[in-house]
């Protein structure tokens, strides 16, 4: 469904952020992209969603296709069902909860039907008229997911969805992600929290200094000694 | 007392006109990230078109033509100049608009010469009486029209999809783009609206008690800039309140200038700036502005 082939990305024509990165997400699958800060995870997402220019970066080699066709701009991605949940949630604080959802539906060229989101996250229904800046971190992540859902996703790209959240909130988000996936939506999970990402995904990539250093079935990566040492911590147990 | 009420009413109507202009300035700052110093010239250009065409096509059509030309000129500035510069520093964009202002104003100056061009309002210079208070009918109509336009604008800003998109773009352009909002459309629409609102204001500014349209009207319109700034440059509410405050302050200062003669004659003209400075000393972000040091 999403195919990234030999992509190079550089910033301001000089700093190479990605070198020959290839990755693919099959329809309905869950793929994890694991890597430390600065490994190039955000650059890869920007390359896919055509959002590099704003950051003075560009794709200098390779190609990205979605359903076999190149992606033109962020709006094109959204309207074809490739939806990104940005790092740090990026909720519009001065818009109400419902306006945040409405904007996302409008951006995707759809009419807002918030029922599904409110069923998944009843707290958002209670707070629908409140401005986004009053939400807690967990509620903001729920709203960010809700925004993605009302846009009618076929592939969701999630950038650090667990960052800075309480464990029970993370558990709730994971449950919802499984439900969304069960409905046939593919997931590309970009995480520093490798334990979480590898437990959800079927296939995973490890990004290091702008290159894919390792890839394979998620189970296999969980047992890889290097991955265990570098990303799962000496005592971490992936379940 | 009657003098006071009459001055207050005149001030409110001038203020409503300033508010229309200030609203456009705020809109451009929020949604298009430009401080537009060419606003006075856009206003002058549209009003000039109305003044030159009303005899041939009648006043209503002339107004429509003026508004159309003002909006079109705004779009041209956006497409030809502002859009290619959108990655430049905000200061560079602001200076570009100063250049546009000089070009348009100079050309209109040349065309108008020392003449005062009549805009041809059907209500002319008639005065309306509210009880014992007399004000020019033009000012009363301006108050009503500006009020209606402002309410319509605010309702649309609050309730429609493009209103939500504009507010979102004003807050975080990148995220809005990632959600599929077409930023270039939002920007273009802001310029169209700002240009159109300015021309409506210009047509009223050039009417009674002002004898007609002259290059000075463009300069007077720039008093909306202190209005927008004292309200807080990123607040629509601020633009309205700022417009009214400036209008009333100016009208009172002009009306009581004999009592204020120790400040020198013509104090009314500088009042908008004095009020702005006073407000900024107390509230550096303006009355309703967001405390924000810089936009990234």
Automatic annotation (TrEMBL), chain A:
Q: Name one Pfam family in it.
A: ABC_tran
Similarity remark? Belongs to the ABC transporter superfamily.
The species this protein was found in? Virgisporangium aliadipatigenens
Q: Which GO terms describe its biological process?
A: L-amino acid transport
Q: Which GO terms describe its molecular function?
A: ATP binding; ATP hydrolysis activity; branched-chain amino acid transmembrane transporter activity
InterPro entries reported for this sequence? AAA+_ATPase, ABC_transporter-like_ATP-bd, ABC_transporter-like_CS, BCAA_Transport_ATP-bd_LivF, P-loop_NTPase
Source organism, top-level taxon:
Bacteria
Q: Which UniProt keywords apply?
A: Amino-acid transport, ATP-binding, Nucleotide-binding, Transport
All residue ranges annotated as the ABC transporter domain in the record: 2-234
Protein name stated in the entry: ABC transporter ATP-binding protein
From TrEMBL, chain B:
Q: Which InterPro entries match?
A: ABC_transp_permease (IPR001851), BCAA_transport_permease (IPR052157)
Q: Which Pfam families match?
A: BPD_transp_2
Q: Where in the cell is it found?
A: Cell membrane
In the bilayer, the protein is annotated as: Multi-pass membrane protein
Sorted alphabetically, the Gene Ontology BP terms of this entry are: amino acid transport
Main location class? membrane
What does UniProt give as GO cellular component?
plasma membrane
Name the family.
Belongs to the binding-protein-dependent transport system permease family. LivHM subfamily.
Indicate what this protein is called per its UniProt record. Answer: Branched-chain amino acid ABC transporter permease
Give the species: Virgisporangium aliadipatigenens
């Amino acid at each position: 469904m999403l195919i990234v082939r030999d992509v190079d990305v550089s910033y301001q024509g000089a700093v190479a952020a990605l070198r020959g990165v290839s990755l693919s997400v099959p329809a309905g699958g869950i793929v994890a992209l694991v890597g430390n800060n600065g490994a190039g995870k955000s650059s890869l997402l920007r390359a896919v969603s055509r959002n590099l220019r704003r950051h003075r970066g560009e794709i200098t080699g390779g190609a990205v296709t979605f359903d076999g066709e190149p992606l033109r701009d962020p709006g094109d991605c959204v309207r074809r069902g490739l939806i990104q949940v940005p790092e740090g949630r990026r909720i519009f604080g001065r818009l109400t909860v419902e306006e945040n959802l409405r904007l996302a539906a409008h951006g995707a060229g759809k009419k807002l039907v918030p029922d599904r989101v409110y069923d998944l996250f009843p707290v958002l229904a209670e707070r629908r008229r409140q401005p986004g800046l009053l939400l807690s971190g967990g509620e903001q992540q729920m709203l960010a997911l809700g925004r993605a859902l009302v846009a009618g996703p076929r592939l969701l790209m999630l950038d650090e969805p667990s960052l800075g959240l309480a464990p029970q909130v993370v558990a709730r988000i994971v449950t919802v992600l499984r439900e969304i996936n069960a409905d046939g939506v593919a997931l590309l999970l970009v995480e520093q929290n490798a334990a979480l990402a590898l437990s959800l995904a079927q296939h995973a990539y490890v990004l290091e200094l702008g290159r894919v250093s390792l890839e394979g079935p998620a189970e296999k990566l969980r047992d890889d000694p290097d991955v265990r040492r570098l990303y799962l911590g000496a005592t971490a147990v992936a379940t | 007392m009657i003098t006071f009420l009459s001055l207050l009413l005149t001030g409110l109507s001038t203020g409503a006109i300033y508010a229309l202009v200030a609203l456009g300035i705020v809109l451009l700052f929020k949604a298009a990230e430009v401080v537009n110093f060419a606003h006075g010239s856009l206003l002058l250009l549209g009003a000039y078109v109305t003044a030159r065409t009303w005899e041939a096509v009648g006043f209503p059509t002339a107004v429509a033509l003026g508004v159309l030309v003002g909006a079109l000129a705004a779009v041209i500035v956006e497409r030809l100049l502002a859009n290619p510069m959108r990655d430049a520093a905000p200061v560079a964009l602001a200076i570009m608009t100063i250049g546009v202002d000089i070009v348009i104003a100079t050309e209109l100056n040349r065309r108008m010469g020392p003449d005062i061009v009549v805009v041809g309002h059907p209500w002319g210079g008639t005065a309306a009486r509210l009880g014992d208070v007399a004000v020019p009918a033009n000012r009363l109509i301006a108050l009503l029209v500006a009020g209606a336009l402002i309410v319509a604008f605010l309702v649309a800003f609050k309730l429609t999809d493009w209103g939500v998109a504009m507010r979102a773009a004003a807050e975080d352009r990148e995220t809005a783009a990632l959600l599929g909002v077409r930023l270039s459309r939002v920007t273009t629409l802001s310029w169209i609206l700002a240009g159109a609102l300015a021309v409506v204001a210009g047509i009223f500014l050039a009417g009674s008690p002002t004898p007609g349209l002259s290059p000075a009207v463009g300069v007077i319109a720039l008093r909306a800039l202190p209005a927008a700034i004292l309200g807080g440059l990123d607040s629509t509410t601020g633009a309205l309140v700022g417009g009214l405050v400036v209008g009333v302050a100016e009208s009172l200062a002009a009306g009581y200038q004999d009592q204020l003669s120790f400040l020198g004659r013509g104090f009314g003209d500088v009042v908008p700036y004095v009020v702005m400075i006073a407000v900024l000393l107390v509230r550096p972000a303006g009355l309703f502005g967001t405390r924000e040091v810089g936009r990234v």
